[in-house]
Amino acid sequence: CEARKVALLGAAGGIGQPLALLLKMNKFATELALYDIANVVGVAADLSHCNTPVEVTAYTGPEELGACLKGADLVVIPAGVPRKPGMTRDDLFNTNAGIVQALIQAVGKHCPQAVIEIITNPVNSTVPIAAETLKSMGVYDPKKLIGVTSLDIVRANTFVSKEKGLDMKDTDVPVIGGHAGATILPLLSQTTPPTSFTDAEKKAMTEKIQNAGTVVVEAKAGKGSATLSMAYAAARMAESTLLGLNGEPNIYECAFVQSDVVAEVPFFASKVLLGPHGVAKVMGLGELDAFEQAALASMLPQLKAEIQKGLDFVKNP
Ligand code: APR
């Protein structure tokens, strides 16, 4: 197993702290570089006392960002502001777009070879911002830029296994599209193990998965959005990515990546094969049933617009 440095940007936040803990417990990272504009020195001091081999270091303020990123194999980005009740993920755009652009410029400069995983919402727009930013620097590699949608899969697996009485650890529901509202499309017809849903169940389950983030935002009543489940899902994605980087074959995850799977949109979440250089292969969608085909067709205008908004932010500021 090669040395694997993971940089976590936004490490002192609601997602960042539990994600840092999960990465500290990871078997595949050797170094965990934590960066934030506030409070990160304390988080790192605290975390460094856990007796796992991962070496924890703290970096704070833009002048230390380069040192944090230098030599990183994987950069995970949850930096930004979270949603409040009444906001959509798209409402976060104005603040988070600039944060992601600035962080990605530093990634492009200090560790252009790293795999980048973006958690900062709206993911449908922040991933295109990152792509366009890296492209403008001449260092864009589509295989190494990933929008993290794993929480949608984690939620789908949890909800479906509970409703259908399946073993949670063996339940797998692919989720495609994007990472906001109606752009989130669970492929219930492709559930493992094979499971049947009535039309009414399919509609209700799809809406429950699409709405799950908003349920958390409302339950937290102004204190933020999903953090623990998001960290759990992002840790799973990071671990799979590190396994792929280490040459482990047959590691699949659903993720939002540059894709020609759906002709109308340049970025799309679907199952991908992870390998030694990031995304080794973007898989097709498999066979969609009539409900899924209709849902896919109706989400495309929203997804397309949110992607375009990200591209325009960099191209025509
Ligand atoms: N550079 C580094 N860190 C930053 C920057 C920046 N420019 N701007 C903000 N941060 C840090 C904050 O200091 C904070 O520690 O990002 C962290 C964000 O934490 P929270 O406010 O608790 O937000 P969180 O719930 O973690 O969500 C962050 O992830 O899922 C998305 O929608 C969510 O976009 C939001 C992001």
TrEMBL record:
UniProt name for this protein: malate dehydrogenase
Annotated ranges, domain Lactate/malate dehydrogenase C-terminal: 149-313
SUPFAM superfamilies: LDH C-terminal domain-like, NAD(P)-binding Rossmann-fold domains
PANTHER family to which the protein is assigned, alphabetical: MALATE AND LACTATE DEHYDROGENASE (PTHR11540), MALATE DEHYDROGENASE, MITOCHONDRIAL (PTHR11540:SF16)
Enzyme Commission number, as recorded: 1.1.1.37
Binding site for substrate: R83, R89, N121, R155
Gene source species: Gonium pectorale (Green alga)
GO cellular component: mitochondrion
